[in-house]
Amino acid sequence: MIRLRALLRRSRGEAGYSLIEMLTVLVIMGVVMEALTTLFVRASNAEVDMNNRFRAQQNARLALDKMRREIHCASTVTKGTSTSPSGPLGAYFINITLPAGCPTNSTSATLTVTWCMQGSASRWGLYRVSGSATCSGGTRYADYMTTPNVFDYTAPTAGSGLLPKVNIDLPVNIQPTKTVDTYELKDDIVLRNGTRA
Prior knowledge:
The strands form 2 sheets. This protein has a 5-stranded antiparallel sheet, covered by helices on one side. A 3-stranded antiparallel sheet has the order 6-7-8, covered by helices on one side. The mean pLDDT is 86. The protein is α+β, with helices and mostly antiparallel strands and 197 residues long. It contains 2 helices and 8 strands, in the order ααββββββββ.
């Protein structure tokens, strides 16, 4: 019995936390956890956005590199007509004639390759159609272009001794409403197998 009384006395003497103190601690922890959660969510969204932009820009660079190899080897290029949305250049597709010796021509005859833009509004994709002079189907090489008019062809003037060239301007932006984030690839590619003026 003496032991029981001693235990009761000891337990009455211990002070615990009050309800007000517990609620205050919970509110403070809630504010801290909310701030940390917001920070992690924003960092995750920024990483996803950065990866998407990098992937879109990398695909555009690889597409431009492939076009550069094909245009350098091409004997002739014809450009398509303009589409309704205005762009930096005048055409939304080009037809390239590749001779039999070109690395990207696996046939023993000349091959027509079409590079074209397919899409609508502010999202366009860059496609390559092999063996056809039309822009239907094909393989998409790049995405998130903001305008379809990305090609132009410049024939050399008579007596200049210059080769023909293709002007390319690829504006890439995964969020077209933010024009400050536009990544632009521009190049003038000369047809090495073209006819000099």
